[in-house]
Design a protein that fits this description.
10-stranded mixed beta sheet; 235 residues; Spore Coat Polysaccharide Biosynthesis Protein SpsA, Chain A; alpha/beta; single chain; two-stranded antiparallel ribbon
Amino acid sequence: MLFAAGLGTRLKPFTDHAPKALAEVNNKTLLEHNIRYLQRFGIYDVIVNVHHFAGMIEDVLYEHDNFGSNVVISDERQEVLETGGGLKKAAHFFEGEDSFVVMNVDVLTTLDLEKMLTAHAESRAMATLAVMNRESSRHLLFDAEMTLCGWTNNGTGEKRISRNATPLQPFAFSGIQVLSGDVLKNIPFDGKFSLIDLYLHLAKTEILKGHDHSGNIFIDVGKPESIEKASYLFQ
């Protein structure tokens, strides 16, 4: 699943007239970059959620024959539901799946997704989150075995601890995750909520793992200057 419903306020003024998914890096939209990224790992069935300029995303997919993938739309035109709410609304698409990949449309990376999928299967975790050792305004907190234990806001000092462990290692979340189907049976929230809120809730009783891909190229293409940087790194 590609999260493409957000308002993309950090990419203004571009997102005043188009969705962030259609921002271009080297004449390819972020939507195309990430559909083709998933294809490199054998993933051709893709769900795209839409809200902001939803029709423009649908038109681009139609005009390009879904870039060679089987793409279905999860329609959030009435209300943008954030990442957690967006996943819950799309849950019926995943019926019968043991595991699946969910990622933000506005990230570009050289993460080896096959290696992450293997790590998820071997750990039998409910979720495996791609993380890096890099600066960020917020960090997820993990124990020595890379089990999710909490979250911190580095600007405000706020901490949310789901399980006690010391020491706790901070890692920045990359917006990419492999989820087991069981996640969809354990969502106690409704409406608009974030996946981070869900993960911190689940981490109290379930095992969620971090997958450290430090050293890979990773760009959060959320600002105009990061698009320029990405153009040097991603063709």
